[in-house]
Specification:
Layout: H1 9-12, H2 16-22, H3 91-103, E1 106-114, H4 116-119, H5 143-148, H6 186-194, E2 196-202, H7 211-227, E3 231-235, H8 246-258, E4 262-263, H9 265-269, H10 300-321
Parallel strand pairs: 1-2, 2-3, 3-4
Length: about 325
């Protein structure tokens, strides 16, 4: 997106090279907005681990004269590969949601934070389009969630742009000057303008350039959402550009620690040809949103859109049951 002519002189003097790098295809772009992570702050809702710490070995059971209950397995660092695609919504997530309603958040609005694969009109946008450009097939029950969140699917996010990484949402430089206030960060602008109750957080592809900062910035993002009563839903990514799957491990560990929903998109695309990735190993394979068409569902994009709807449906069902 071109810089507006009314930006401060410092911003106008940014080199063409830097801007070009940031707005390049997100698979190969290095976001130029990395900032040191802030020290995490306490939040009103639980932000301390509610499950056993992740480790490779289990502690021995103490000796007792009473029959021992069957121990609960401690999640290991690689258990993210078998985590369900669609999460069970925890009591802590519901508490965040209820707190958000008290703060004035809109239960019918969700937000999206991410890079070009979040920014693109291929992601969720079709569910707001008329005439319909999708076919739910055997998932007709998802009509209810599409109607409930109507307007959020197509609405551009102030915190999703090509080249973004986890640091970018905290950089005022990348806030839309026509829609955001002076000095406001993209995430602040998005939450202020739309008062979402849920946020889909989809980072990692561009963060391979800043692995040392990724966890701190994700914590900062999670805690900002919790403080504002917005349920953060973390998504794993399909690619492994960092080479050791460490980003997905971190995302999984953070979801466990904060007891928030994990959308394990990585697992959903594993059965697909080339695991749902284009030859570049970064971008998702494209297909029409025809959920009853076996051929169409061999591409990653309809799988991503379907599973995103299912995650939102899980939130809707949990909050209605509550």
């Amino acid at each position: 997106m071109p810089l507006a002519s009314n930006l401060p002189r410092t911003f106008r003097q940014l080199s063409l090279t830097a801007i070009t790098l940031l707005l390049a295809a997100c698979a190969g772009a290095q976001a130029a907005t990395s900032q040191p992570g802030a020290t995490p702050t306490e939040t009103a809702i639980n932000t301390t681990p509610t499950q056993a710490p992740i480790n490779d070995t289990a502690e021995p059971m103490p000796a007792t004269s009473e029959p021992a209950a069957t121990p609960t397995a401690t999640p290991g660092p690689d258990d993210w590969t078998s985590a369900p695609v669609i999460p069970v919504i925890s009591a802590n997530a519901l508490a965040i949601y209820e707190h958000g309603l008290e703060l004035g958040n809109d239960p019918r609005v969700f937000s999206k934070l991410g890079d070009c694969e979040t920014f693109t009109t291929w992601f969720l946008t079709p569910f707001d389009q008329q005439p319909q450009t999708y076919d739910l097939g055997p998932y007709s029950h998802l009509t209810a969630v599409i109607e409930y969140y109507s307007g959020s699917f197509e609405r551009p996010s102030m915190a999703a742009r090509p080249g973004f990484n986890a640091s970018s949402v905290f950089a005022p430089l990348w806030a839309d000057p026509e829609r955001c206030e002076s000095g406001e960060t993209p995430i602040e602008c998005e939450f202020r303008r739309n008062h979402p109750s849920v946020v889909l957080i989809m980072f990692g592809t561009n963060d391979r350039w800043h692995l040392d900062e990724f966890e701190a910035q994700m914590r900062r993002m999670i805690e900002y959402a919790i403080e504002h009563g917005v349920v953060p839903i973390l998504s794993t990514k399909a690619d492994n550009l960092e080479g050791d799957e460490s980003i997905n491990r971190t995302i999984y560990a953070l979801a466990l620690e904060y007891d928030i929903p994990l959308w394990n998109f990585w697992r959903a695309v594993q059965p697909l040809p080339n695991h749902g990735l284009d030859p570049d190993g970064a971008h998702l394979t494209f297909g029409a949103n025809r959920f009853g068409d076996d051929d169409a569902m061999q591409a990653a994009w309809p799988v991503r859109n379907l599973t995103a709807l299912q995650v939102l449906d899980a939130i809707l069902n949990a909050t209605e049951d509550g």
